Amino acid sequence: MTDLTKTTLSFHPLEPLRLPLVNRLYKTHYPAGKAKKDEIIWIGETATSIEAVVRFQQYDDFQLMTGMLVAPQLRQQGFGLALLNACHLQLMAKPCYCFAFSHLESLYLKAQFSVIADDALPLSLAHRIERYRVGGKALTPMLYQAG
């Protein structure tokens, strides 16, 4: 077994040809997630495998950060926050919203997201979060607000 305390990840945008590898990670750990070609995708990887991913869906005036995943064996070690810090320029490109699972709200607060009211969301996202909640997901709308 490897010593996970010595694990290091390099963070960078995904090369499009590697999209199937990200979808394999989702299929293994988060089957509802599926990366698409029209998204901007950032990854964290070791020398041998992709271990973290986050996607940005692009809209005209804003973006939605979605599909954040860190492999279960690497959680609670700061890799999620490190991934978000690494993609700071993407987060700043245009207003960036996310729907945080309630148990991850503190992670996003550390990454400079702020909780916002549903009525502060663009209309298309307000409809989407409403649909997700009807489906039973406990989600908090947030907006990236780095200084």
Automatic annotation (TrEMBL):
Gene3D superfamilies: 3.40.630.30. This is GNAT family N-acetyltransferase. It comes from the Bacteria. It comes from Photobacterium arenosum.
